[in-house]
Specification:
With about 800 residues, this protein is an alpha/beta fold. The chain folds into three domains: about 210 residues, 2-enoyl-CoA Hydratase, Chain A, domain 1, CATH 3.90.226; about 190 residues, 3-Layer(aba) Sandwich (Rossmann fold), CATH 3.40.50.720; about 180 residues, Orthogonal Bundle (N-(1-d-carboxylethyl)-l-norvaline Dehydrogenase, domain 2), CATH 1.10.1040. Helix content is about 45%, strand content about 10%. The chain contains 33 helices and 22 strands. An eight-stranded mixed beta sheet has the order 15-14-13-16-17-18-19-20, sandwiched between helices. Strands 5-6-7-8-10-12 form a six-stranded mixed beta sheet, sandwiched between helices. It has a two-stranded antiparallel sheet with strand order 1-2. α22 links the parallel β19 and β20. α13 runs antiparallel to α14 and α32 crosses α33. The longest helix is centred in the last third of the chain and has 21 residues. About 55% of the residues are buried. In the central section; belongs to the 3-hydroxyacyl-CoA dehydrogenase family. Belongs to the enoyl-CoA hydratase/isomerase family. This is enoyl-CoA hydratase. GO terms for molecular function: enoyl-CoA hydratase activity; long-chain (3S)-3-hydroxyacyl-CoA dehydrogenase (NAD+) activity; NAD+ binding. It comes from Entomoneis paludosa.
Length: about 800
């Protein structure tokens, strides 16, 4: 179990950075030859953590991560609530009292699609308890449920935390909430939580204060404490109340990874007492409450195994657990994220001080201290960006309905696009040249789904539904045109060849309806060039997915000048439904993410020229907070691919910003067969999972060294990152991206830009734009004009302006 917990600790990085953030990417050739973003570096993990901001996940807290369609923000113009006999409370339905003496309290945040714990809800809950339960001797037990089907409580409202300027002011607020929980327990009647849908963060903490927990077997039901993903910790007693229920190792696994726990596992680990069908939830909860009240029902707690008792219930065993967890956290985060260490501190403090309220006081004090950190501010900023990226800005009826999507090309990209589309209930036509090509795509999807079934993340029924949503087609299939005639959207993922793509546009337009949208997955060719000569250019748009598509959250949507609004809105809604975080970017070479990556690649070559050893270069960037260094990245993606991308952008419109380094070095490596991991040797040599610096390449690289400048780690970081950041700012200046939020989200999810720094623009705010411009000017004087800050940075520095308020 110690080893299991060690692996669980590794999951921390995956969770904090999210599925997208655990992977640094650059363009590469996919199986079908198209230039795509390839997965670069993965972190070890236990099972699979819940997604980060997960495109599909947003945050709320005392802090909880919530699902993508959750609406937890308070609107500024919200009308004041006026109580009526039919609706006494804003955040609860009127309490129902059964004839048997059970009070059913249903959460129901008025005007919201989900329930979240705001300061206002906390205040009203005290009022409700005092009015309805406190002095009502007829009440034998209480059931907490939700009036919203498929959602219990998604967490606490992050808006309340953000608007609290002095985070120390959160301490008495949290204390008031905790005293409320202690107060309702003091009445001495059974409390039952009836959970259908998400019970996350503060929502699960509410349930933990209850005597009995029942959840539904719905696919929407999940429980977790994902506060770590916002750089926070559970503040309503979660660090103290969870481990006595599920065991120390399970509790640490949940809190350090923020993972979702599904019903069957929740029952097995003791997090819930019963799992029932949604239709019977409240009736079973009422019966259980009565059973607890009259002592005919006693909760059955699963006893710990002898080995777990040996580990968890004595100081020597716990020392081994803490030692293992700390090592793994340091290994995978370099200590950049303070929240996991604070979570550990809170649990340890509670174990050392088991009685009284001191442990809860310590917990809320640590929560407030974390809420004041730049890391939490950055992660919450990413959450806010995710929230903003959920809407395209057009009216609700602008997007066209999409029931059927044709995917052309069944390679890794095409199959991945087909997978995430079919999983959302959309009919998919998967087309390629022949049965063999289509068969590989089908196998890719089915293998991924089978893994989910094996890990109990998908039912057999859902597997069968997904499979039935995909219709394979080949070029010589006589019914191709008939099927395509019914498609609402075609997504092309074929070779990166302009003539081929134009040919496909012509073929698609001849067999599809006037309204059918054509989306190209190119990562290099201008969308306007692909649309040139088309009959319906207004229907053509770029949808740049990142590989592997099922894991990566980012989707760049690229309209050309002639793309109509309905096409943009439809592409955005399809991408969002696929679980992607969509950013709309301008039709320029490299779009946004790859465009920013180009100068970074050139500067990597420049640093090697200036004598920086390979391993030192990798280490410096990892220490900055990137998931992987540039040398490892090149090997993982492929030296040939990196060389191609660098040369492509060098010949584009970036001018001097793509100068300063000799990327021909990588072209020579390709000729020598040093392609990276896929050939067994690149900058590193690979022997199974082990890698060591390739001595031949090391000697070859040294031949490019003009002078060893003996650069410090800080200067290495600044030179590389400033090229990245300056290009992002230039993209904002040139209106390639709409605003800094888009820029932050794009690079955090598209390149793994250190999440705890919040993206390039929030990073600039943290270090000061004026300081950064001064640094870049010094580098420009020292190394050349490629370091000259763009005009936007100069303007912000001169006016002492920030990118984020």
């Amino acid at each position: 179990m110690m080893l299991r917990q060690g692996r669980a600790a590794k999951d921390l990085v995956r969770t904090i950075r999210g599925r997208a953030l655990s992977t640094l990417q650059v363009p590469s050739k996919s199986q079908n030859g198209s230039l795509t973003l390839q997965s670069e570096a993965r972190f070890s993990r236990v099972g699979r953590s819940s997604e980060f901001l997960t495109g599909r996940r947003s945050f709320a807290s005392t802090a909880a991560v919530t699902t993508a369609d959750e609406d937890t923000q308070v609107t500024k113009d919200e009308a004041p609530f006026v109580p009526t006999p039919e609706r006494k409370y804003k955040f609860f339905q009127n309490v129902e009292f059964t004839d048997s003496g059970v009070a059913v309290i249903r959460f129901d945040c008025l005007g919201k699609s989900v329930n979240s714990i705001s300061f206002a809800l906390a205040d009203e809950s005290k009022e409700l308890w005092a009015n309805e339960i406190e002095k009502n001797d007829k009440v034998k037990a209480v059931v907490f449920s939700s009036a919203k089907p498929g959602t219990f409580i998604v967490g606490a409202d992050i808006y309340d935390i953000k608007k609290t300027e002095n985070k120390q002011d959160l301490i008495p607020v949290i204390e008031g909430g905790l005293k409320f929980f202690q107060h309702i327990r003091s009445k001495g009647i059974p409390l039952v939580a009836a959970i259908d849908g998400p019970a996350l963060g503060g929502g699960l903490e509410w349930a933990l204060w209850c005597d009995y927990r029942i959840c539904t077997d719905s696919s929407k039901t999940k429980m977790g404490l994902p506060e770590v993903k916002l750089g926070l910790l559970p503040g309503f007693g979660g660090t103290q109340n969870l481990h006595p229920l599920v065991g120390l190792q399970n509790a640490m696994d949940m809190m350090l990874t923020g993972k979702d726990i599904r019903p069957s596992k929740a029952k097995k680990m003791g997090l819930v007492d019963l799992v029932v069908a949604p239709a019977s939830l409240e009736s079973v909860a009422i019966d259980s409450a009565l059973g607890l009240a009259d002592k005919t029902l006693k909760p059955k707690r699963k006893p710990k195994s002898f080995f777990n008792r040996l580990l968890e219930d004595n100081s020597f065993g716990r020392y081994a657990i803490w030692d293992q967890i700390n090592k793994m956290i340091m290994k995978n985060t370099n200590g950049k994220y303070p929240s996991p260490f604070k979570i550990i501190d809170c649990v340890k403090y509670g174990l050392d001080n088991p009685t009284g309220d001191a442990k809860y006081k310590y917990e809320r004090e640590q929560f407030a201290s974390l809420a004041a950190t730049s890391e939490s501010e950055a992660l919450i900023g990413i959450f806010d960006g995710m929230t903003q990226m959920k809407k395209h800005g057009y009216s609700a009826d602008t997007a066209l309905p999409v029931k059927s999507v044709a995917v052309m090309g069944a390679g890794l990209m095409g199959a991945g696009i087909a997978q995430v589309t079919a999983e959302k209930g959309i009919q998919v036509l998967l087309k390629d040249r022949n049965d063999e090509s289509v068969g590989r795509g089908l196998s890719y999807m089915q293998d991924n789904w089978k893994k989910k079934v094996k890990r109990k993340r998908m039912t057999e029924h859902k597997y069968n539904l997904n499979t039935s949503n995909v219709t394979p087609l080949t070029d010589d299939n006589p019914v191709v045109e008939k099927h395509f005639g019914k498609a609402d959207m075609v997504i092309e993922a074929v070779f990166e060849d302009l003539d081929l793509k134009r040919k496909i546009v012509s073929q698609v337009e001849s067999s599809t309806s006037e309204k059918c949208i054509f989306a190209t997955n190119t990562s290099a060719i201008p969308i306007a060039s692909i649309a040139e000569g088309a009959k319906r250019p207004e229907n053509i748009i770029g949808m740049h997915y990142f590989s592997p598509v099922p894991a990566m959250l980012l989707l760049e949507i690229i309209p050309h000048e002639g793309t109509r609004d309905s096409t943009i809105a439809t592409a955005f809604e399809v991408g969002t439904k696929q679980g992607k975080t969509c950013i709309v970017v301008k039709d320029v070479p490299g779009f946004y993410v790859n465009r920013c990556f180009g100068p970074y690649l050139v500067e990597t070559a420049a640093l090697l020229r200036d004598g920086v050893p390979l391993d030192k270069l990798d280490k410096a960037i990892k220490n900055f907070g990137m998931p992987v260094g540039p040398i490892s990245l090149a090997d993982d993606v492929g030296i040939d691919v990196i060389s191609h991308v660098a040369n492509f952008l060098s010949n584009a419109d970036l001018g001097v910003r793509m100068e300063g380094g000799d990327v021909s070095m990588m072209g020579d490596m390709v000729e020598k067969g040093w392609l990276g991991k896929k050939s067994g040797e690149g900058f590193y040599k690979y022997n199974g999972k082990k890698k060591t610096i390739n001595p031949e390449v090391e000697a070859y690289v040294k031949s490019f060294v003009q002078e060893d400048l003996h650069l410090s780690e800080e200067e290495i970081q600044n030179r590389l990152v400033s090229r990245f950041v300056n290009e992002a700012a230039k993209c904002l200046e040139d209106e390639i991206i709409a605003n800094p939020v888009v820029g932050d989200v794009g690079l955090v999810f598209g390149t793994g830009f250190a999440p705890f720094r919040g993206g390039p623009f929030r990073y600039l705010d943290q270090v000061g734009v004026d300081n950064y411009v001064d640094m870049m000017n010094k580098y420009a004087d020292k190394y050349g004009p490629q370091f000259e800050p763009c005009q936007l940075l100069k303007d912000y520095a001169a006016s002492n302006k920030k990118f984020h308020n």
